[in-house]
Amino acid sequence: MISKNIGNIDRIIRLFVGIFAITISIFIGLSNIVSIIVLIVGIVVLLTSVVSYCPIYTILKFDTIFEKEKQ
């Protein structure tokens, strides 16, 4: 089982950033390579928000969970 390393505040920020990036890339149009990259980044950020786990945080031995949230 993967242990969570993203706190509630970080999750909310990632959720909005992911939705924003996906929306922007769709409105720009998927014919552009930049919009496809933005779409992929948005999906990854959104997924990390949903599962509360970020592999990069694990590599850096970092988490954003407060002590209250760990209980």
Describe it for me?
With 71 residues, this protein is mainly α. It has one domain (8-61). Helices cover 69% and strands 0% of the residues. It contains 4 helices and no strands. The chain has helices at residues 8-28, 33-51, 55-59, 67-70. α1 (8-28) runs antiparallel to α2 (33-51). It is elongated, with a radius of gyration of 14 Å.
How many alpha or pi helices? 4
SS-derived structural category: mainly alpha
User: What is the H/E order?
Assistant: HHHH
Stretches where pLDDT falls below 50 for ≥5 residues? Answer: none
Largest sheet: none
Question: Could you give the count of β-strands?
Answer: 0
| DSSP strand content | under 5%
Helix content percent band = 55-70%
The structural domain count equals 1
Overall mean confidence score, pLDDT: 89
The gyration radius over C-alpha positions equals 14 Å
Q: Outline, from the CA principal axes?
A: elongated
Oligomer: single chain
Terminal CA distance reads: 17 Å
How is the secondary structure organized here?
Elements: H1 8-28, H2 33-51, H3 55-59, H4 67-70
Helix pairs in contact: 1-2
Quick description:
The protein has 71 residues and is mostly helical.
